[in-house]
C-alpha cells in the first residue's frame, strides 16, 4: 500500500516536470491518476494550471484521467475550471473534446465560462461558447426612442455578437435553462447583457416585414409600485418606476435575412441552429437525458416555461433528438455513408425531400416531418413532397 501511494505521488511530481515518459511508465506500473495533494489537486488539475504542462495534460487525458474530477476548498472546481481560470485556451479545448462538462458549478457557483468572463480571457470565452451554444452570430440591435426607428432606423442600430447558451445547475436532472448573451465585439470577454430566457417573453417577427426584428422582454426585474411619501408623485413618475422591464430588439445581421432570424428564435426555445449544432449536446449523452434534450417544437407559439426552467414540449415522434440530424448529416454523402435516417437514427435512408433534394431519412419519418411542416431535417427548407427511392 505504501509503495502504491508512493507511485501515485511520484506520478503527480512528474506532471510538474512534464516528464511524459515517466508518467506513462508509472501508470503502466499501476500508479493512480487521481491522487490528491495537500492543496486538493489531482495530477490533471495541476497540469491544467500552466501552459507549459499542456503535453502532460494531454498524456493524462489519454491515459484515462477523470476530466470531470471535482475538488472543493482552495482549489475548488474541475480541471476545466482551472484551465479557464488561467486562460489556457488549448487546454480548455483539449478537455472539452474529451468530455469535460462546461456546466459544472464550482464552490463560488460559477461555470468555467463565467470564470473565463470574470478573468477577461476572451479566447477561452469564445472556445467554451462555441462548444455549447445553440446559436451564435452577428446581429443588429435597435436602441433609442421607438418613434425614431421609423425615421432613421440605420442610425439607431449597432452590430452585436449574440450567443444563446445553457447555464449551469446544481441539479443536472432538470432541463437546461438558457441565457441570451450579447457582446459589443468579439474582443470582449465580459458581455454587455445577459438575459435569462426562462424569464423572458419572445415576440416573434412578422414574416411580411421588409426588415423584420424580434423583441425579447425580460420579466425578471422587479416591478415595485412607487410609494407615495410626503410629496406628490406624478402619474408619469409612477409609471417610470413601475415599468422596469428590460427590452431587447434584434434583427438579422443582413437586412431581410429571415433564415438567420428564425434560427435565432428557434434557439431561444431550445432548438440549435442547423449550421452550428452544439458539440455539448453530442458529447454528454450521459448527462443529457431524454427528459431535457432539446426536441422539435410542435408550435413555437406555445408557452415553454414552467417553474423557471425551459420545458421542451414533446411531439408524437418522441424519439426525435434534434442534436443528431445536424451533427451527422453534413458528414454523410446522402444515400451513402451509414445510410441511417437522421430522424429516428434506426431505419435506413430511403426517401428524398423535394425540392431541396436531401436524402435525409426513412419514408415514415420524413412524411411525418412534412405533415408537421417542420422543414427538411438538413437545411430546414419547406418540404413540398417526399419521394421514396428504390435502389437497383
Topology:
Elements: H1 2-16, H2 20-28, H3 43-47, H4 54-63, H5 79-85, H6 89-97, H7 112-119, H8 122-132, E1 135-142, E2 157-166, E3 178-183, E4 193-196, E5 200-203, E6 213-218, H9 235-242, E7 246-252, H10 258-268, H11 279-283, E8 305-306, E9 309-310, H12 323-328, E10 351-354, H13 363-371, E11 385-388
Antiparallel strand pairs: 1-2, 1-7, 2-3, 3-4, 5-6, 6-7, 8-9, 10-11
Number of helices: 13
CATH topology category name of the largest domain: PH-domain like
Mean pLDDT across residues: 76
SSE class? alpha+beta
Oligomer: single chain
C-alpha geometry:
globular
Task: Write out the strand line-up for the largest beta sheet, numbering strands in chain order.
Answer: 4-3-2-1-7-6-5
What is the alpha-carbon Rg in Å? 25 Å
- The succession of helices and strands, N to C, reads HHHHHHHHEEEEEEHEHHEEHEHE
Summarize the structure.
This protein has 392 residues and is α+β, with helices and mostly antiparallel strands.
Write a structural description:
With 392 residues, the protein is an alpha+beta fold. It folds into three domains: 2-124, Alpha Horseshoe (Serine Threonine Protein Phosphatase 5, Tetratricopeptide repeat); 133-310, PH-domain like (Roll); 323-388, Herpes Virus-1. 29% of the residues lie in helices and 15% in strands. The strands form three sheets. Strands 4-3-2-1-7-6-5 form a seven-stranded antiparallel beta sheet. A two-stranded antiparallel ribbon has the order 8-9. It contains 13 helices and eleven strands. The protein has helices spanning 2-16, 20-28, 43-47, 54-63, 79-85, 89-97, 112-119, 122-132, 235-242, 258-268, 279-283, 323-328, 363-371; strands at residues 135-142, 157-166, 178-183, 193-196, 200-203, 213-218, 246-252, 305-306, 309-310, 351-354, 385-388. Helix 6 runs parallel beside helix 8 (122-132).
Amino acid at each position: 500500500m505504501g509503495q502504491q501511494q508512493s507511485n501515485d505521488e511520484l506520478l503527480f511530481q512528474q506532471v510538474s516536470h512534464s516528464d511524459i515518459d515517466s508518467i506513462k511508465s508509472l501508470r503502466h506500473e499501476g500508479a493512480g491518476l487521481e491522487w490528491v495533494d495537500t492543496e486538493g489537486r489531482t495530477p490533471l488539475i495541476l497540469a491544467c494550471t500552466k501552459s507549459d504542462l499542456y503535453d502532460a495534460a494531454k498524456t493524462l487525458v489519454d491515459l484515462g484521467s477523470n476530466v470531470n474530477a471535482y475538488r472543493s476548498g482552495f482549489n475548488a472546481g474541475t480541471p476545466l475550471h482551472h484551465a479557464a481560470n488561467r486562460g489556457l485556451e488549448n487546454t480548455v479545448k483539449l478537455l472539452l473534446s474529451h468530455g469535460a462538462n462546461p456546466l459544472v458549478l464550482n464552490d463560488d457557483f460559477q461555470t468555467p465560462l463565467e470564470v473565463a468572463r470574470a478573468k477577461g480571457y476572451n479566447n477561452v470565452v469564445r472556445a467554451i461558447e462555441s462548444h455549447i451554444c445553440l446559436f451564435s452570430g452577428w446581429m443588429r440591435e435597435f436602441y433609442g426612442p421607438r418613434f425614431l426607428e421609423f425615421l432613421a432606423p440605420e442610425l439607431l442600430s449597432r452590430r452585436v455578437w449574440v450567443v444563446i447558451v445553457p447555464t449551469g445547475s446544481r441539479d443536472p436532472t432538470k432541463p437546461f435553462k438558457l441565457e441570451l448573451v450579447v457582446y459589443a465585439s468579439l474582443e470582449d470577454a465580459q458581455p454587455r447583457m445577459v438575459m435569462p430566457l426562462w424569464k423572458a417573453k419572445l415576440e416573434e417577427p412578422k414574416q411580411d416585414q421588409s426588415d423584420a426584428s424580434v423583441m425579447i422582454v425580460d420579466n425578471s426585474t422587479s416591478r415595485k409600485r412607487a410609494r407615495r411619501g410626503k410629496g406628490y408623485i406624478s402619474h408619469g413618475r409612477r409609471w417610470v418606476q413601475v415599468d422596469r422591464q428590460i427590452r431587447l430588439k434584434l434583427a438579422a445581421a443582413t437586412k431581410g435575412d429571415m433564415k438567420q432570424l428564425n434560427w435565432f428564435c428557434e434557439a431561444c426555445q431550445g432548438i440549435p441552429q442547423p449550421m452550428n449544432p452544439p458539440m455539448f449536446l453530442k458529447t454528454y449523452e450521459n448527462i443529457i437525458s431524454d427528459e431535457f434534450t432539446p426536441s422539435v417544437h410542435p408550435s413555437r407559439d406555445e408557452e415553454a416555461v414552467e417553474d423557471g426552467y425551459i420545458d421542451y414540449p414533446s411531439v408524437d415522434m418522441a424519439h426525435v433528438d434534434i442534436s443528431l440530424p445536424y451533427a451527422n448529416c453534413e458528414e454523410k454523402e446522402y444515400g451513402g455513408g451509414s445510410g441511417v435516417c437522421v430522424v429516428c437514427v434506426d431505419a435506413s435512408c430511403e426517401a428524398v425531400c423535394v425540392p431541396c433534394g436531401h436524402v435525409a431519412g426513412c419514408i415514415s419519418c420524413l412524411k411525418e416531418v412534412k405533415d408537421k411542416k417542420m422543414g427538411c431535417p438538413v437545411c430546414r427548407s419547406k418540404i413540398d413532397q417526399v419521394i421514396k427511392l428504390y435502389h437497383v
